Amino acid sequence: MNETDYITLEVAQTLPGLFHERVVRAPRTQAYGFYDDEKNTWESLTWQQVACQAAKVQAGLQNKGLGKGDRVAILLRNCPEWIVFDVAALGLGLVTVPLYTNDRAENVAYIIRDAGIKAILIQNLRQWRQLSQIESVRDALQCVISVAPVMDMAHHDSRLVHMQDWINDETRDGYKAVVLDRNALATIIYTSGTTGRPKGVMLSHWNILLNAYAALQCADFFEKDVFLSFLPLSHSMERTAGCFMPMMANSKVCFARSIQQLGEDLEKVRPTIFISVPRIYEIIYAKISSQVEEQPSYRKMMFAWAQRIGWRSLRFRTGKARWHWSLLLWPLMDRLVAAKIRQKLGGRLRYAIVGGAALDKIITKFFVSLGVPIYQGYGMTECSPVISVARPGGNDPFSIGKPLPGIEVNLTEEGELCTRSDCVMLGYYGNKQATEQMIDTEGWLHTGDIAHITDEGYLYITGRIKDIIVLANAEKVSPQDMETAICADQLFDQVMILGEGQPFLSALLVLNQAEWEVLAKDMKLNAKAPETLQDASLHRYVMQRLAGCLKEFPGYAQVRRVSMYLEPWTIENNLLTPTLKIRRTQLAELFAEDISAMYKSMKT
């Protein structure tokens, strides 16, 4: 029997209060699963074991002179130590600042300075070697805690501490949850900064608790549920919905190893809940599609039938289509095709939650037609972060669902989505002006997204105010929707649509290396010669392929000129944010000459 043991807001009051209550209620229940590289097997920690380790870390933090209100940072991949350090720091009234492990050292240094970080938890000494080269970082930090052994380097830097030394310490004090106001600052989460320096979002204990509990009311979560934690815990969605929400529900969280091993982890862990961003589903979709293409014709035809009948079956079950004789074939198609795909995702997914951006409609339809329970959600770090999510029993797979309980939404005259609730941030750290620009005098937070709300209350994001492209003929285009549709094609890894004030749209395209080599061979082109990307026949072919990707868009929303590249846009070359969003301003500056040439070389 599925059982529930929710911890209410009134009982928890604060985040350390939530953790302490969970330890008291279920000390021997498995809390976290992780892969032990030395043992080459999956291991687990109980709530009591996590609390014991956290208590020892608290003693170590106090011995370093850290106290209520001090800021500490976490620069670590998802693992039990992330949680241990977080709940230890929060229990002492410290303010945690999560950092992205894939972020550039310069960006991390800026956050350390801006937030006034006194201590930092790192993965290994390689990270510290990079950061310690920056003078402002050396001057700011009082303590550097490493998950990996510090070895001889500790003799040269007295601030270095091995976290395991704290965890193995003989201290027997229990976990401390100091008395805190529920509205006290709990964390500062820095936004990715697509248009400038990142801003520190200040969230209180109550902000996060309320958001997690509201999300918990939108579906059934049980003690036997298993979450697979893949998104970085520095991402607000993973921290609220993938950490504190399962803590409330007494569900287990297993930490995925890497994107390369995600397939293995899904099949081994067999999660019931999986939260991720669209890019992961795009990768899975591309891999499955590639495998299907290699199959004999009859198998490809069967796969296509399964999708068509599965989609019709879903629409029939939700009352959006009439019965059709082909539905009689669904049990067979489900057993021969769809069930095998679901098995690759672990075989027992109840909720596959997508957030961070819209999932392409083609990819959404692909998964839901095969019985994968896709639920789209929407939020912002500034809102702790979930604003809306789809629900079982009333799920339009193309909608971001309905607002969470207690969260208000409305639209401005321009169609901008605004939200108001106790989940809205305290403000931007040290930036009153930016806070006032984001939250109006009536408490409405302006998301910057253009939305549509149906009479039934379903939300649909249709564009972004700042990123909307206005062509010379006054037609308006949402570039993200087009970019998502294009990236569903395996040939295109990355894309940026351009055309502000221009007579037509153009695009910067990064080609998938493997797909490019196959295409070049088929077209008898030299894949290794840079000038090949300027070949006229290649451009004609790519334009035809783009037209196929954008066939559902209006005539004015079509790409008429492209520039192609093979070098990916990455965080390291500062063309992607840590959350893998493209930096449009930097891309436009870097490829200014190519962009200018596209518009000069084509008459309107």
How many β-strand runs? 26
Strands side by side in the biggest sheet:
2-1-11-10-12-13-14-15-16
Number of helices, where a helix is a run of at least 4 consecutive DSSP H or I residues: 22
Q: What average pLDDT do the residues reach?
A: 92
Largest sheet: 9 strands, mixed
Q: What is the rounded distance between the termini?
A: 66 Å
| Percentage of β-strand residues | 15-25%
**How much helical structure, as a percent, in the residues?**
25-40%
Structural commentary:
The structure is a single chain. A hairpin with a 4-residue loop joins β17 and β18. Strands 2-1-11-10-12-13-14-15-16 form a 9-stranded mixed sheet, with helices on both faces. The longest helix has 21 residues, at about 295-315. Helices cover about 40% and strands about 20% of the residues. It contains 22 helices and 26 strands. The chain is globular, with a radius of gyration of 25 Å. α2 (about 15-25) packs across α4 (about 80-90), α14 (about 295-315) crosses α15 (about 330-345) and α14 (about 295-315) packs across α16 (about 360-370). It has about 600 residues and is α/β, with parallel strands linked by helices.
